[in-house]
Amino acid sequence: MSRYMIVVWRTTLVRLPWRLAACALIWSGVMVFSTAWAGTLQGTATYRERIALPADAVFEAELQEISRADAPAVVLGRSTLAPSGQPPFRFAIVYDDAAVQSGHRYTVRATIRHQRRLLFTTDRIHPVLDGRNAPLHIQMVSVRGGRQPGSMTDDLGVLPASYEGELPGAGNPVVWHVDLLPEGRYQLRTIHVGRPEPNRYDDIGRWTRDKSGRIVLRGGREALVFLMPLKDGAALRKLDLLGRPIESGHNDRLLRLPEPRLIEPRLMLTGMFTYMADAAAITLCVDGRRLPVAMEGDYKALEAAYQKSTPQPGQPVLASLEGLITQRPSMEEGRPAQTTLVIERFVAVWPRESCGNPLADSPLRGTYWKLVRLGEYPATAATKQREAHLIFAADALRVTGSGGCNRIIGSIELDGDRLRFGRMASTRMSCPDGMDQEKRLIETLKHVACYRIRGSHLELLDAAGTVIARFEAVALQEK
Fold first, then answer.
1. Reported pTM
2. Residue 233 and residue 156: Cα distance in Å, rounded?
3. Which phi and psi angles does 301 have, rounded to 5°?
4. Which of 201, 226, 401, 411 is a plausible cystine mate for 422, CB 3.0–4.6 Å?
5. In degrees rounded to 5, what are phi and psi of residue 436?
């Protein structure tokens, strides 16, 4: 295995004024200058094998803060050599000196990529800015056989990593398979042994670490999944729905496989779809991945709906579909296979909607909720008229808003996730457009039985559990 050696002199700290601001204080007649200082980490990199890098390889070194185990690394500065040239590489990472805090943890991560394919990366934490005077020697490991770690944690090792285990279920055992991917993404498959098909369920999303060190999976499932790393990432302990150890004599461990064995998830998805210049791509709402879309399966139905819904080429539109995330050959000669979305069944496009923020926790009360869907139909907004929206008062059981033409106000009953609207009053204006949608909204509110919030989206459900209206958080209201 080839190695890179990077030497960073942590004592080479060059302080330079990089932002100089002046503010005139009229009342005192004094000019005050505010100066922020920049620090610089300088270093060189080389490797031991006598091989030449491709002419368009890119070298990058990042200064990262890794103080919080439950959050992604924070990049304080980076140095990029594009093209990298041949060794030795000389680099300097400039960072805001004010951002460095005593007692926090910092590291330098370095990579070399060729056409976005990772060739070399650091494989462990290398502390910097900790007061030591000796030079830091960073070893980079070669990425072979298409394996692209892209991430390193204290107690999980190099990612991606795959874990498997058979755990007890409701009457039948359940085989769990979890892929932990770089950049805080995951893939999950559960197979219910002994049940008739369909007995396999896939999920994708984001994983984070909480203060107790637990891994929290947040994706398309209603409930969070909690896992506790064991033995330096050699296993994951499955916890209960509240994140507590399961008191049972049954197995609760998922063991790490010797090599990553990534699943190809098949599931319902939503994402921001774009098409331009014969290229199609989608950014998935649940984990933020941007994937090329294969022009096969039910793709033509999606493209036709997209072109009908948007007047401008390349404008992203929210799409719902059933899809398969798999590997497909690259369209560019000489490039490796790439992760691609295959559309197996197109559902709909929703022109006024977006992914919002899946990780947000928007409260029901005190949030401006914009109407984006009524039943199975996207909401519309008439030109020079208000958009339909609701605002639930933070200090009273009251709701106000607009149907798109008239202002509306009424009372609500709220008990946990149960929600009922009282009699709604409205002004009596007549508008050239949107009156039918306004009437349908007011009628729909009569049938609301409960609600749920997913990220920055509010869904109103009837007594049968059917989503009859969907809203998107736009802005918090001032108290």
1. 0.59
2. 4
3. -65, -40
4. 411
5. -65, -45
- What's the token pair of residue 232? 């330096």
The structure tokens listed for 347 are: 């559902």
Q: Name residue 411's beta-bridge partners.
A: 398
CA distance 108 to 64: 6
- Reported as type and span, the H/E element at residue 142 is strand 136-142
**Angle at alpha carbon of residue 411, lines to 409 and 415, rounded to 5°:** 140
- Show the tokens assigned to 428: 């009596």
DSSP 8-class letter at 98: G
Task: Give the number of residues written for the chain.
Answer: 479
Tokens of 178: 């979890």
Of 403, 405, 407, the residue nearest 383 (C-alpha) = 405
- Would you list the DSSP string of 384-441? TSPPPEEEE-SSSSEEEEESSSSEEEEEEEEETTEEEEEEEEE-----SS-HHHHHHH
CA dist., res. 234 & res. 162, Å (int) = 10
Q: Yes or no: say if 5 and 47 are a contact pair by the CB < 8 Å rule.
A: yes
* Nearest-angstrom CA–CA distance, 342 and 320: 13
Q: How far apart are CA 71 and CA 385, in angstroms?
A: 42
Give the separation between CA 343 and CA 330, rounded to whole angstroms: 17
SS3 of residue 106 by DSSP: strand
- Could you tell me if 78 and 60 are in contact, meaning their C-beta atoms sit under 8 angstroms apart? yes
Other CB atoms within 10 A of residue 275 CB = 22
pLDDT in tens, the chain (479 residues): 444 455 544 444 444 444 333 333 333 333 333 344 567 787 777 766 566 678 788 888 888 887 765 556 788 888 888 888 887 777 788 888 888 888 788 888 888 888 777 777 776 677 788 776 556 677 677 665 333 434 445 567 788 999 999 999 888 899 999 999 988 899 999 999 988 988 999 999 999 888 888 999 988 877 899 999 998 789 999 999 899 998 888 899 999 999 999 999 999 999 999 998 788 999 999 888 999 999 999 999 999 999 988 777 788 999 999 999 999 887 667 678 899 999 999 999 988 888 877 666 678 998 899 999 999 888 888 888 889 999 999 889 999 999 999 999 999 999 999 999 999 998 988 888 889 999 999 999 999 999 998 878 899 999 999 999 999 987 544 44
- CA–CA distance, 465 with 241 (Å, rounded to integer): 22
DSSP at 72: P
Q: How far apart are CA 196 and CA 14, in angstroms?
A: 67
Count of beta carbons in the 10 Å neighbourhood of residue 26: 6
β-pairing, 151-153 vs 200-209, is unpaired
